[in-house]
TrEMBL record:
Protein species of origin: Pseudomonas bharatica CSV86
Molecular function terms from GO: metallopeptidase activity
Record GO biological process: proteolysis
Protein name according to UniProt: TldD/PmbA family protein
Lineage top rank: taxon: Bacteria
Length: 443
């Protein structure tokens, strides 16, 4: 199926190179997928289907102006070339009507990047049998998405990129009779049936505690453990501007003090944009090759995500970041705390599985606020005692990942984007859990 997508992309590129007239220049970005979706309720299949789709975004550049247009593709060569011809003509008529772009910066280097990850996907019958065995008669609600995702890029300067990655993502919740739920996820590129079994067993174990009376905590400061799924919410929020060259240059970066050398995080914290080995392509939609970047190393800021426009505006070197300059393959280094020892190391405090509604309460101070969600537990002497009522926290990243960070787990979880809005995404996070000495709850 990937060959089908690649053939369709190649045919569009060949047509453009034959029909774009100098001094016109073009870039073409391509996205395709063949996805299987299975929805479950009470651990039974309620809906199943396949989606095969592809689209392209054509950008035309001439005399310092640029305009782009996105088109849905049919998979039929003649029809798609006709749609491309209509799009090209529409862009030709649009270009003279728009002003020149002062920050237009094209990559005029010819490069070639081809990568296909051919890891076999799990058989759906095997997956469903594992889910049924692991969930039993519990109310499991979730969605399984699996299949190849393709991305392509080509330009009139001779650049050519192709990326195809197989991946699966099982996102589910186990519901208690009282309406409480444990949310869990198992995703990746290499299928490990025992890995799914362990996740299901952990969720079942936590579900049993949800039947106990809720414990309400007074506002104050508590020891806390953030599971990787909770850490994902924190680093996702940081990703919006936290590592952006534009945000740093405009001084509205939430980690401005870190990049200015006025503050540090814990030496335990190292964060990278780990393109290699991820399902994210090694090239951007702007036509720049991407490589691994060390964003934070042992608590100190290093590189920034720099798009082509930021490079032009702030006299920097573009490094393959997209226009929004957010990580798409974030990887946080592991620590040395074994997952099996988390409750013992926590002692007495909060075990937080999930967070939600995160936002900045004081962006220049990297202070964030949000709510606990789903299975959040009160732990005493290394043993779970009761589920905790939804609580709001308000604390600084410089505290949570800085002065108050005690340990990171040795095991990390691969968390793929579960978004299917328009198409499946290639974003991912590879994260440990985090034990902190102090978390501030406000209400």
């Amino acid at each position: 199926m990937a060959d089908h997508f690649l053939h369709g992309f190649n045919s569009l590129v060949d047509w453009l190179r034959a029909n774009v007239r100098p001094p016109e220049q073009f870039t073409l970005s391509y996205a395709g997928e063949r996805s299987q979706f299975i929805r479950l309720n009470h651990a039974k299949v309620r809906q199943a289907g396949d989606v095969q789709q592809s689209s392209a975004s054509l950008k035309l550049i001439a005399e310092g102006r640029q305009a782009d247009l996105r088109l849905t593709l049919s998979g039929d060569h003649k029809i798609d070339c006709q749609r491309l011809a209509e799009a090209l003509e529409q862009l030709r008529q649009t270009l003279p009507l728009i002003p020149q772009d002062p920050y237009l910066q094209l990559n005029e280097q010819a490069w070639d990047s081809r990568h296909q990850q051919q890891a076999p996907l799990p058989d759906n019958a095997e997956v469903l049998a594992r889910i049924e065995a692991g969930a039993g008669d519990l109310d499991l609600v979730g969605i399984l998405a699996a299949g190849p995702i393709c991305r392509g890029f080509a330009s009139s300067h001779g650049a050519f990129g192709w990326h195809q990655a197989n991946s699966f993502n099982f996102d589910w919740s186990l519901f208690h009779a009282n309406g409480q739920a444990v949310k869990a996820n198992y995703a990746g590129q290499v299928w490990d049936p025992q890995g799914l079994d362990r996740r299901l067993a952990r969720a079942r174990e936590q579900l049993e505690y949800l039947g106990r009376p809720l414990k309400t905590l007074a506002p104050g400061q508590y020891r806390a453990y953030f599971a990787p799924s909770a850490m994902e919410e924190i680093v996702d929020l940081l990703g919006w501007g936290g590592f952006s060259a534009q945000a740093v240059a405009n001084k509205n970066c939430p980690l401005q003090r870190l990049y200015a050398g006025e503050a540090t995080l814990s030496p335990l914290v190292s964060i990278a944009e780990q393109v290699s080995g991820s399902i994210s392509p090694a090239f951007s939609g702007e036509g720049y090759p991407r490589s691994d970047l060390r964003l934070i190393d042992q608590g100190r800021a290093l590189e920034q995500l720099t798009s082509a426009r930021s490079a032009a505006e702030f006299q920097r070197q573009a490094n393959g970041a997209e226009a929004w300059e957010s990580p798409s393959a974030l990887s946080m280094a592991a620590g040395d705390l074994a997952q099996a020892d988390v409750l013992k190391a926590l002692g007495t405090g909060l075990y937080i599985n999930n967070l939600w509604y995160l936002n900045y309460s004081d962006q220049p101070a990297a202070r964030i606020t949000g709510l606990t969600r789903f299975a959040c537990f009160w732990v005493e002497n290394g043993e779970i005692q009761a589920p905790v009522s939804t609580m709001r926290f308000d604390d600084s990243v410089y505290s949570l990942l800085g002065s108050q960070l005690e340990a990171l787990t040795l095991e990390r979880e691969m968390l793929l984007s579960a978004s299917t809005y328009g198409q499946r995404q290639t974003g991912s996070s590879h994260l440990p859990g985090a034990l902190v000495k102090r978390l501030t709850l406000t209400l």
